[in-house]
TrEMBL record:
GO MF entry, a single one: nucleic acid binding
Matches recorded under Pfam families: rve_3
GO BP terms in the entry: DNA integration
Stretches assigned to the Integrase catalytic domain: 1-123
Protein name listed in UniProt: Transposase InsO family protein
Cross-referenced InterPro entries: Integrase_cat-core, RNaseH-like_sf, RNaseH_sf
Transmembrane regions: none
Length: 125
């Protein structure tokens, strides 16, 4: 969480995660008498930075649809098209793809702006 907060140039107010045990107690323990005294490390990190932590609803896979679509886009542009000789080569290609996507690719859903242009436009007065 420390690295994320340091890397993101704007305030993070909410994080949406799945319901895995790394983010939440098992359902039968979530509302028990000691639930308020237990805290997952991720929840404590969110609390430290005043970030709201929300969980996706169980059995609602469409909640993560946008993330899953982006993961598919990255896979189609990288591992499904190229064979990598090393992890370093793979990581360099991922970094290059994400930079090209954020700074060069114009998206219809962002009214023809690149993600970078859209964020700068939204945050400018």
């Amino acid at each position: 969480m420390d690295a994320l907060v340091a890397a993101v140039p704007h305030e993070i107010h909410t994080v949406l995660t799945g319901n895995g045990i790394q983010f939440a107690d098992i359902p039968r323990n979530r509302n028990g008498p000691t639930a308020r005294f237990r805290g997952r490390p991720f929840d404590r990190a969110c609390w430290r930075y005043d970030i709201a932590h929300r969980l996706t609803k169980p059995k609602h896979p469409w909640t993560n649809g946008q993330v899953e679509r982006m993961n598919r886009t990255i896979k189609e542009a990288t591992v499904k098209r190229y064979r990598y000789d090393s992890h370093d080569q793979f990581h360099r290609h991922i970094d290059d793809f994400v930079a090209a996507y954020n700074f060069a690719r114009r998206l219809k859903t962002l009214r023809g702006f690149t993600p970078y242009e859209f964020i700068c436009k939204v945050n400018s007065p």
